Amino acid sequence: MKQIFFTIFFLIFTIIFSQKKDTINKTNIHFTPTKVEYQKVELKNEVLENYIKKLSTKNEAKQSIWDTLIPLLIGAFLTLGTQIYFENKKNKKDNDNQILESKSELEKLTYLLRHNYNELAMHKVHKHYWYAQYQYEENLETPNLNDVNKFYNYHIESGNKAIIIENVIAENFSNFTKEISKIQHLTKQNTEVNNLYVKFMSHTPKKPQDIMSLNRSELYELARKEEDKLKKEYQEYIKILNDIKNIV
Q1: Which residue has the higher pLDDT, 23 or 66?
Q2: In this structure, what DSSP letter does residue 142 have?
Q3: pLDDT digits over 139-172, tens only?
Q4: What 3-state class would DSSP assign to 198?
Q5: Across the strands, what pairs with 224?
Q6: Cβ density class 187-220: b for 16+ within 10 Å, e for less
Q7: Residues 160, 165, 170, 171: is their CA dihedral positive or negative?
Q8: Poorest-confidence range of 30-44, 51-65, 133-147, 151-165?
């Protein structure tokens, strides 16, 4: 509003104080008995005309610039918006595929670890079983030295196999944690996972007991029961792994 009043005031001021630059073109008046001619007066205000011309030129320049810029800006924003939309859609699809792959890998690792722990229980119990057989054979009045050596070697071999399986378990568990980390990176972090890791590492299964019996024929049955008990102890590991897998 102030700008409008200022413009009107400026125009009036210009007209009043610029009269000395006005030129007046006059046409002589001729009187005749039958015809009356009037004097024609034309005012030319150079300052006012220049000002109006300047405003018109400025408006035309401004209008022409925005007429060019606005379509360009609209096109740029549409292009950028479309690109961002499809890029985000592609990234989401890639993330979903990676999550599915990691979850599939977790299923496989959980199955392998279950099998590894069952095998570990078997070798640990067999270590005690073969040692019991070795003792019985060695304490006989006439021991069979071949059987003595065989049972003792089985005892050592079972212990070595248990160590190998423990290393396999460590490797599979490491791969399990890597896949969990991938999923956590692509999705919302779940702090409960760390608590379950602590629970997993702190779990200490009971060690298999020595297999002893007055009756040698009972050794196999005692070993089988001890193996079932140890497998049950190791299942706690698998339960924790399933809990971790289910919350990511």
Answers
A1: 66
A2: S
A3: 998 999 999 999 999 999 999 999 999 999 999 9
A4: helix
A5: none
A6: eeeeeebeebeeebeeeebeebeebeeeeeeebe
A7: positive
A8: 30-44
Half-sphere exposure of 142 (CA within 13 A, CB side): 0
- Whole-angstrom CA distances from 23 to 18, 43, 50 are 11, 6, 15
Contacts of 193 by beta carbon, 8 Å cutoff, 6+ apart: 180, 184, 244, 247, 248
What is the distance between the alpha carbons of residues 69 and 173, in angstroms, rounded to a whole number? 60
Q: Are strands 23-25 and 42-44 parallel, antiparallel or unpaired?
A: antiparallel
- C-alpha span between 158 and 131 (Å, rounded): 10
Main-chain phi, psi angles of 143, to 5 degrees: -65, 150
pLDDT at 47: 55
pTM for this prediction? 0.65
- Hey, what are 191's tokens? 């702090």
- The Cα–Cα gap between 195 and 38 comes to 108
- Cβ neighbours around 179 below 10 Å, total: 21
Q: What is the pLDDT of residue 60?
A: 53
